[in-house]
Amino acid sequence: MEWTHLLAFNLTLLAALISPGPAMLIALRATLTGGRIEGIKTGFGLALMASAWTGMALLGLDAIFALFPWAYTGAKLVGAAYLIWLAIKMWRNAPKLLSADNSVPEQRAVLSGIAANLANPKSMLFAASVLVVIFPSGMGFAENALIVFNQFAVELLAYVGFALALSTPPVRTGYLRLKPVLDRVAAAVLCALGLRLILTR
After folding, report:
1. Sequence-separated (6 or more) residues with CB below 8 Å from residue 87
2. pLDDT band at 144 (very low <50, low <70, confident <90, very high)
């Protein structure tokens, strides 16, 4: 493995991170509703689970899903149900004003990030396809570990950057003013992603 492989992987990873998926929506909302620290902690959980999916892809979990399609189908259904539940909860709470009661304890912020990426087994299949295309075959344990750590570091830095940019007073004030509309748009997107997870192979 050469540094150019890691560079290509990181560019692909950053392109995926900025796309409007469930992880990005949850990270943005955590920052806008709970502030910088909650956004960073949620991003930590998201990065941890995403890099874990990559580690499992390197260990061959994607091959297990190919051998046992029912396991992948079950994982997809659970993940879709979680995303749709989040969407319903967000839609129903959209008109409610934020207060100190909306703050999330440290362990729950991290766990919410882990749960969001755990709910999408396609993250692992995406990682597996990217790994096959970018990296050479026959890599050893040290190289595989470097890929997983690299992904965790890149994702965490990205989410920290998002949290710092979005936690400024003008952005938060603007969000609070538009909260009902933005929350319902985000809820609709999450619901659509959940339905897509059910309907696509």
Report:
1. 187, 188, 190, 191, 194
2. confident
